Amino acid sequence: MAKAKMNAVEMLKADHRKVEDLFEKYEKARGKKAEIAKKICLELIVHTMLEEEIFYPACREVGVEEDMMDEADVEHDGAKVLIAELEHGTPEDDYYDAKVKVLSEEIKHHVKEEEQRDGLFAQAKSKGVDLEALGEQMAARKKEILAGIDENSLPLPMTQTMRAAALGQRPQA
Length: 173
Fold this sequence. Notes:
It is a single chain. The protein has 6 helices and no strands. By secondary structure, the protein is an all-alpha fold. It has one domain. Helix 1 (about 10-30) packs antiparallel against helix 2 (about 35-60) and helix 1 packs antiparallel against helix 4 (about 95-115). The longest helix has 29 residues, at about 35-60. It is globular and about 50 Å long.
């Protein structure tokens, strides 16, 4: 039997559950923390790329609340700063566990805002975003992104709203 295609919101929610499970595993882990953190970073990098390249533009196009969209972009960028820190660190580093914990809390907040009754996903649906078409587009893009990623050398996340020196970006004049 062929696997049912997920619409965009179902796909993003599935990503949310996967990352939540990984954060739980990290909290309980005695060893392999670096491996779990790397998986968290990979999942979040791919997820944010899908949202920023495909889902968020479609939401903005149909008039999803501008403040909500801007806040989502800034939340992504805050997470990207921590992801970059984790990518360049090890569990033996000072603050490593704290950075994972804060990233987990930021993601929980972000997920809640996207998934709540009047949140981003609900607005996208009510404003008529074609979630089926976006789901197909996002699935194809996810496959493409994953094919181009070396898990030992994750891509450096790029911020849209922050000029973060930690991400190797130069401040713009």
